[in-house]
Amino acid sequence: MFQTLVEFQRTIYLALAEQIKLLAAGGDWLAFTAFLPMGILFGAAHALTPGHSKAVLATYLAGSDAKVSRGLLVSTTLSITHVTTAVLIAVLSLPLVSIALGSVGRAPLLEDISRGLLGLIGLWMLWRALSHGHHHKHEGEAVGVMAGLIPCPLTLFVMTFAIARGVPAAGILFAGTMMIGVAITLSAVAILSILLRERLVWFVEGRSRLFEAITRSIEGLAGAALIALAIHEILLR
Question: How do residues 194-234 score in pLDDT, each as one tens digit?
Fold first, then answer.
């Protein structure tokens, strides 16, 4: 499955590279615009591969009280931040690259900031579960931004190639369609996480004490998992 996704992405990327070359040589923008919908498939397939904070998204939503609409907002926020961060790094180029990038397609500084902030969210969720605290209104959006700070490596490649060919606008347009594809995949993850949590809660909803204990336990475990994920990712890098 993974190899199939990789080959699918490679096929689209090579076709995109050819389109950008033609555009740079004085080609037709209309033809490039007709190719743009492929970016949605590109982004959706890419988001299915390891990474893109899917584990963080699922863990947070499993431990929160978010409904599907809120989960979609969180996943969309994550997708927008994930792709936009990569676009900004590519457009701002050398100043940010020299500070933030340790290797091609990576941003170690932003990764550490993102994981550190997510670890703090995990601590907050764990404390709230133990102290019976309340959920913050915009907590989900904050998690989406924090998790999305890690730039999308494929967007970086696309933007770098487009800028090198002198057509940065083409890279930005394609990144926009990729963002839609990434959002579709992450939204599916969000919906599944929330539905599974609600299904579990439904089984014990009639027993108030058990219901309270299970919901607090889920939130506490989710908080602990976020802390563990943050520490693991930082130490692993």
Answer: 998 888 777 766 565 665 666 677 767 777 777 777 777 66
- 166 backbone φψ class: left, alpha, beta (φ>0; ψ -120 to 50): left
How far is CA 199 from each of CA 122, 191, 193, 215, 216, rounded to the nearest angstrom?
23, 12, 10, 12, 16
3-state SS string over 81-144?
A: HHHHHHHHHHHHCHHHHHHHCCCCCCCHHHHHHHHHHHHHHHHHHHHHHHHCCCCCCCHHHHHH
Of the candidates 22, 50, 47, the residue with the CA atom closest to the CA atom of residue 34: 22
The three-class DSSP label of residue 37 is: coil
Do residues 136 and 127 make contact, with C-beta atoms less than 8 angstroms apart?
Answer: no
Alpha-helical (H) ranges within the chain are: 2-24, 29-35, 38-48, 54-63, 68-92, 94-100, 108-131, 139-148, 153-164, 168-203, 208-236
Distance CA 210, CA 117 (A): 32
- Angle of helix 108-131 versus helix 139-148 axis, rounded to 10: 150
Report the alpha-carbon distance of residue 41 to residue 15 in Å, rounded: 13
Q: Is the pLDDT of residue 33 over 60?
A: yes
Distance CA 217, CA 204 (A): 13
